[in-house]
Amino acid sequence: MTQVSDNTAGNTVPNGEPVEMLLNMGPQHPSTHGVFRMVLWLDGEKVVDMEPHIGYLHRGSEKLCEGEQYAQVITLFDRMDYIANFNNEHVYCRAVEKLMGLEVPERAEYIRVILCELNRIASHMLFIATMGLDAGAMTPSMFCFRGRERIQGLFESVSGARMMHNYFRIGGLKEDVPEGFVQDVRDLLVLVKEDTEESDKLLSFNEIFLARLKNVAVMSAEDAIDFGLTGPCLRASGVDYDVRKAAPYSVYDRFEFDVPVGLDGDCWDRYYLRVQEIYQSMRIVEQALEQLPEGEVVSSLGRRLIRPPAGEVYVRAENPRGEIGVYLISDGTDKPYRIKVRPPSFCNLSALKHMLKDCWIADSVVILGALDIVLGEVDR
């Protein structure tokens, strides 16, 4: 216990001086969503101050990219945000393709979008499950995990792996999707929609769940922009910004879909916005299946060793946690000279201290959970 500033009231010791208690949450705490440590200074049950500590999962992914050939780097992006593998593969491949001026076959673009949107759904379903668990609700997680497992099963049939897919290639895909893929996805969407609706009915407007999340860690649009929030965390504060709409890439400009936007910028908005995004991703996948053309899925580049011309490029995309950017420098060899990632989870963490100030300790778990961070991406 240490003495706190004069404006802190609450617990006192016999001599009448106010004190605060230091509490470690993590890195082993189950509600820290990864190997993350929060140090909280408490005045009774209220959080007076906090300090986030990252780096426990540091793997040096960006530095490792410099020692790998361009095609080998894809696996490193798989492992950064291990809940959004396809989305990360996509943005990296687009960066190299932009540097090379490479045109991707149309069929490959559509399949990429289908897989990325299914990955977004799977990621959000995991978020809903963990958000429910953080607030004390067990049953909705069962529906969400069932739906997520169905999607992961489809991914395995396409890439051969349940998570670390290494399926996208610079210039296209590793190979075409298996026979019956279109019907399999259509059947999957029906089941996943049922799973989402069941968890939505159980959790979203539950009286206890609302009491835990409504009006907790409210962020205005101005504050959200100032702190660099991105993705659902930014849109929950009323900012209508989605890279897929603001700067359309791949074939996203061919689909009709809405960008859900929140009203209050609280934890409940950050939760429910992701529920709505699941339904919008389903719309995109359904349209992509209808428009899916025949043709090749690999560019004329084939299996040749990739050597982009010397230069630099920055490419951004919308992954489940927000805007992810890849800055790539090539020196003309078969390995990147530098790769720097702008990760949404890391940026969203910048607002955590502001959100936790003067909240209750019980709220700290749901506030962190509503950010939906993935530490593999934060620590890279």
What does this entry look like structurally?
- A hairpin with a 2-residue loop joins β5 and β6 (172-173).
- α4 runs antiparallel to α5, α5 packs antiparallel against α6 (181-203) and α6 runs antiparallel to α11 (267-291).
- This protein starts with a strand and ends with a helix.
- The chain has 380 residues and is of the alpha+beta class.
- It contains 15 helices and 9 strands.
What's a concise summary of this model?
With 380 residues, this protein is an alpha+beta fold. The chain has 15 helices and nine strands.
Secondary-structure blueprint:
Elements: E1 2-3, E2 19-25, E3 37-43, E4 46-53, H1 61-65, H2 74-78, H3 85-100, H4 106-134, H5 139-159, E5 168-169, E6 172-173, H6 181-203, H7 207-213, H8 221-226, H9 232-235, H10 243-246, H11 267-291, E7 311-319, E8 322-330, E9 338-342, H12 344-349, H13 352-356, H14 361-371, H15 375-379
Antiparallel strand pairs: 1-2, 2-3, 3-4, 5-6, 7-8, 8-9
Helix pairs in contact: 3-4, 4-5, 4-11, 4-14, 5-6, 6-11, 11-14
Count up the helices: 15
State the major sheet.
4 strands, antiparallel
Side-by-side strand order of the widest sheet: 1-2-3-4
Give the termini distance in whole angstroms.
34 Å
CATH topology of the largest domain: the name is Cytochrome-c3 Hydrogenase, chain B
* Helical coverage, percent range: 40-55%
Residue fraction in strands: 5-15%
- How many structural domains in the coordinates? 2
- Pairing-aware structural class of the strands and helices? alpha+beta
Shape: globular
CATH superfamily annotation of the largest domain: Cytochrome-c3 Hydrogenase, chain B
Uncertain spans: 1-10
The sequence of SSEs as H and E is EEEEHHHHHEEHHHHHHEEEHHHH
Mean pLDDT, to the nearest integer, reads: 90
CATH class of the largest domain: Mainly Alpha
Number of strands: 9
The CATH architecture name of the largest domain reads: Orthogonal Bundle
Radius of gyration, taken over Cα atoms and rounded to an integer in Å? 22 Å
